[in-house]
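Final paragraph of the annual report: two paired records, presented back to back.
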Amino acid sequence: MIYQRTIASDITFTGIGIHSGKKVTMNLRPAAAGVGVVFKRIDLPDAIWQKADALSVGATANNTTLGTGVSAIHTVEHLLAAFYGLGINNIYCEIDGPEVPTMDGSSGSFIFVLKETGIQNLNETKQFMIITDTIRVEHEGKWAQIEPHDKLVIDSTIVFAHPVIKTQRKVFEFSSENFIEQISRARTFGMLKDVDMLKRMGLIKGGSLDNAVVLDDFNVVNPEGLRFSDEFVRHKILDTLGDISLLGYEIIGKVTTFKSGHHLHNELCKKVLGTAGSYEIVSAANLAMGARQSHILPSAIPVVN
């Protein structure tokens, strides 16, 4: 519960990038305490390790991208959500292409393999970012904010002019078990009418019914239907968790979003990091000790199985 973690052994994923359409192989390797989550494009000469943090984010149109230019790594949010959901703080991610493989469009495939391979506790305690002030960003009626709370909670609302989606809201209280059961299998989604436009923008070249929920004007096109009746807002929570994990710590605070996306999530993270007094960093050991001394349950420490 309080120690930094990595994976027990090497893991390889192979799949298609949902936006690039390119086949990519990703190797995950154990890392020592303090390394963090780091990425490297092994298909490029002289590539360097790039730490996953909010200040390294480049493009945020329909995905979260680390870095810029030819060495950028696209669509990291579903993988980052899986790491956060399992409490993995340190890991090397080697990719031989421009984008993390999308798998089924959720974090479910990553979660399954990571758990099967095994997760290893390291010999240093993890650190938490405790939010101490309310920070908010907004743009054209869309907004995201983070405020003090005694645990990590994500309160998400989405609004789409589609008869299947309409307005959906879900309040999610983070724990590893809750993430795996309620959020990790929720897939990304898109409208059939937008396909041509998005492809002209260089996006969703690898999109299919195997890695996304697709909707026509009235219904879900996928023959198997939805995994949850509100799968759309659940996926928004998945994206939000992956994006705010780029703050670099496990978080104690409440995140509320309204019609937000990757760009606003990143702006929120950058504003938190740039606002003095908006947070404090506390080790898990000190957090647990303080809770015991005050004779209260240390509920702020997320349970990670």
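The closing record of the year follows.
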Amino acid sequence: MWLITPVGFFSVVQKAGTHHLTVRARVKADLEALRTDWLPSLSPTQQGGGTDYPFRATCTHEAWAEALGKMALSLDYSNVKSKVAATQGQARAAVYSQVWHALHGLSELPPPPTRRSSGKAASYGSVVIDGQGRILLQKPANNFDGGAWTFPKGRPQPGEEPQAAARREVREETGWAIEIRAAIPGEHEGTTTLNRYWLARPLEQVGHADWESEAIQWASPEQARALFQANGNALKRTRDLEVLDLALQLAATLDT
């Protein structure tokens, strides 16, 4: 989650393989203020742990929930930007105003696809886009489901969380480890499954595609669109083209 407050701007995530939250900031003083005012159990600040957010610390889910509750109970201002200007100065308020103007564009976006209740099994996958804008595609082996190029995805294992299933399916079907960036809106219907996707970036190739894949390739958006257009299954063709467009829109928004 992103959180813009009068004491700072924070990005809060749960990293894969951990059971705590990582609170990230671009300004060290923001974490110090958070620790002083709301979250005394926040760990010491570490510097240089990533490129997007150079400062980070950790806490439990329970401590973060308690801190959010304290913030909510202390709300006493009618305008966030004015409060920020009073507590952190006009320069910080001006930056937040730019964020406000950018998010104003949300009102111009089409509504997300409506949630469908089809009774089909859930399937989870990822649209993986690398630094060159190429998209990772998988071609199922043995002409499974028509053998058309598609995004890596699959059904979860018992007790497996959706994002974990999406990461595992990409790793198994392509050999690539990924980092999930954001959820792609909507649920997208296939022949036998109802699919949810996440936008992701590649981290490293950790192996080879398993038996489920005849081939994999990195394709430009135009190449991916052409491969999807060749799918003889109209439902899947429409689904993959829709997911592609949503993923590219989301990636452009995040990168901006």
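The longest strand covers residues 193-205. This concludes the annual technical report; the extension proposal builds directly on these records.
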